[in-house]
Write a structure and sequence with these properties.
With 115 residues, the chain is an alpha+beta fold. It has one domain. Helix content is 22%, strand content 25%. It has a 3-stranded antiparallel beta sheet. A 3-stranded antiparallel beta sheet has the order 4-3-6, with no helix packed on it. A hairpin with a 2-residue loop joins strand 1 and strand 2. The longest helix is centred in the first third of the chain and has 15 residues. The N and C termini lie far apart (46 Å).
Length: 115
């Protein structure tokens, strides 16, 4: 079975329930990952800047964990998204949005590294 999003062959070598999810969605593992990010994007939980998707774990400076456990090792980022501005040090890079998902996930935020 080919993925209905990218056309690649879907590989069903996961556990049965996961294979059933991929089969039902008619999506390869990679496109299924991006469908999940798309749902987060639509809820405002994930944003896109410069063609890359990001998810903030928190919208503040986190001090309850060592920096080695934080996204980007605790680097501080200024985020402007959905009319909200905040600084976070726990931001997770989700990857470059594939070309075939960019019409559904265009840039919708500004991101600036502070330190």
């Amino acid at each position: 079975m080919d993925c209905k999003y990218c056309g690649e062959l879907i590989q069903f070598h996961f556990y049965e329930a996961r294979n059933d999810e991929l089969r039902a969605e008619q999506a390869c593992f990679s496109c299924d990952f991006w469908l999940r990010r798309l749902k987060e994007y639509q809820k405002g939980e994930t944003f896109v800047s410069g063609g890359c998707a990001y998810t903030p774990a928190v919208k503040r400076i986190r001090t309850d964990k060592p920096s080695r456990w934080l996204g980007f090792a605790g680097t501080h980022w200024e985020v402007k998204h959905n009319g909200e501005e905040y600084i976070t040090n726990d931001l997770w890079h989700r990857g470059s949005v594939p070309e075939h998902f960019r019409e559904w996930m265009p840039d919708n935020a500004e991101l600036r590294r502070l330190r």
